[in-house]
Amino acid sequence: MTAYIIRRVIQAAVVIIILSLIVFFIMRLLPGDPLVIFMGRSAGQGGITPEILEALRVQYGLDKPLMVQYFNWMGGIFQGDLGESITYHIGVGKLLLERFPVTLDLGLRAFILSNILGVLLGLFAALRRGKWIDSGATVFSYFGVSIPVFWLGLLLIYAFGLKLGWLPISGYTPPWDNFWMNFKQSIMPVVCLSVMGLAVTARQMRSSVLEIKQQDYIRTAWSKGLSERVIVTRHMLKNSLIPVITLMGIGLGIMIGGQVLVETVFAIPGAGRLLVNSVFAQDYQVVQSGTLIIAVVVVLMNLIVDISYGWFDPRIRFG
Q1: pLDDT in tens, 100-145
Q2: 270 touches 263 (CB < 8 A)
Q3: Domain ranges in the chain?
Q4: Domain covering 92-312 in this structure, CATH number
């Protein structure tokens, strides 16, 4: 087990390094100059001169060769320095520290909601195959995986925000400032983020339970006269969850890294919206560091999922 974890950690480190190289050089391949873009936006404040432009290149380290810039960036990360944003003129670490809690808050709520409801819906649909709950779960799963998130968000805003006036249509309030307002503002974004994950989890859970129901040890449990509750909780549930937890690990990474549409629709100041704005502004430091942090979260989640296999199914052994 220890050797397996060490191998996975090494593989994760290699993946993160490769991703950092890809993000770093792709950003440099984009047409345009981030300093020229920034100075163009602030031209009304004094104009652009070659001297100012060159001074800014030196300040942000853009006058050095690309490999030197890369190693300076990675060296700063190991020292806890993510660099300085060209657009916002503050440290990238401070900027991400302000935005990532918002993304994590919404992402974790949606992750918990989608997986709990998805597992329960898929389980009951499989146990009551052919009944109304199975038909309803099937229809919902097709709806959930096909509906665009931004379109669902606009429908919710129109129905519950504009027509009924039950929920605020935009913004984000930290829960420690106003818990009730935070709860109301997060309902529609969390629903949008949860729908696809809930549908996928429910479909996978239903298929997994239907497969497990055909196993010999389940038939033996029924022949012994055990109750349905005992059979489901002791013999069926853990083994059915093995393929589902793979989706959970992937889903959390996608949910945290793919919130840009939801954050844009509901005007939420999260990390996804920050990264997209930074891409358009070619703010190298923000895009590089933000993407690297999201990659680390995704890799760690996949590592946790791999390790958890041994607990869910003791037959799995790590060599």
Answers
A1: 888 888 888 888 888 899 888 888 888 888 788 888 888 888 888 8
A2: yes
A3: 92-312
A4: 1.10.3720.10
